[in-house]
Amino acid sequence: MRLSCLVACLLVAVGCSTATGPIGDPAGKGDGDGAGAGAGDGAGDDGAGDDGAGDDIGGGEDDTGGGDDTPIPFECPMAALGTVGALLDSEAYRIDADAYLYTTIDEATEFYVELYDGYGIFTDAPPAAGTYQITGEDVAYSTCGVCVSLVIATETTDVVYMATEGSVTIESVDGNFTGSATGLRFAETEDGDVPTPGGCTGAIDDVAFDQPYGAAPEPI
């Protein structure tokens, strides 16, 4: 199951950015050139002159191809979230010793806490109650034992963030997935591991969670 959540988010983000990126030449531009050349040549053969109908029809290319294909400028979403209140649409589940919390902060912002046995801070012992600092191996998704991430939807793409610092307190991994986090700082990432140079950043000062476990989803 490792990597299933964030990789899925990264794939969605890439798909969104590709779908809404620049199209290239306007759809009508090529048609306009073709229509102008064809009509002009035909009129010339009949004696009407190359400049007659050809210029009129060809000149319409600005009208047919003049649609606004300018891509929407990307701006980093507001990600300084301060103290987070009640979480929305939360679900938690266990797979063996691993624990997962998937939730939303608002309609555009998803928040994830994942604990992985055998990785990062949990290399030598399974996830358990305690307070853990996000540092070292725990700032990269491929190696983290305590993994905290955000996904924020914008008009053009989904921006994926990994926590690069902060403190996570786990109160329980039995029955309910219960805990809190403070001083979280996030960096945008395109692969889950390396912060995007010059990318977006975010912060959560305080957030708490308490979610009973449900049935685990099917593996992706």
Description:
There is one protein chain. By secondary structure, the chain is an alpha+beta fold. It folds into two domains: 29-64, no CATH class; 73-212, no CATH class. The protein has four helices and eight strands. Strands 1, 2, 3, 4, 5, 6, 7 and 8 form an eight-stranded antiparallel beta sheet that branches. Strand 2 (98-106) and strand 3 (109-115) form a beta hairpin. The chain is globular and about 55 Å long. The N and C termini lie close together (8 Å). Mean pLDDT is 77; it is low at 11-62.
Domain count: the total is: 2
* DSSP summary: helix tally: 4
Q: What share of residues is helical? A: 10-25%
Structural class estimated from helices and strands: alpha+beta
DSSP strand tally: 8
What gross morphology would you assign?
globular
Key features of this structure:
220 residues, alpha+beta, eight-stranded antiparallel β-sheet
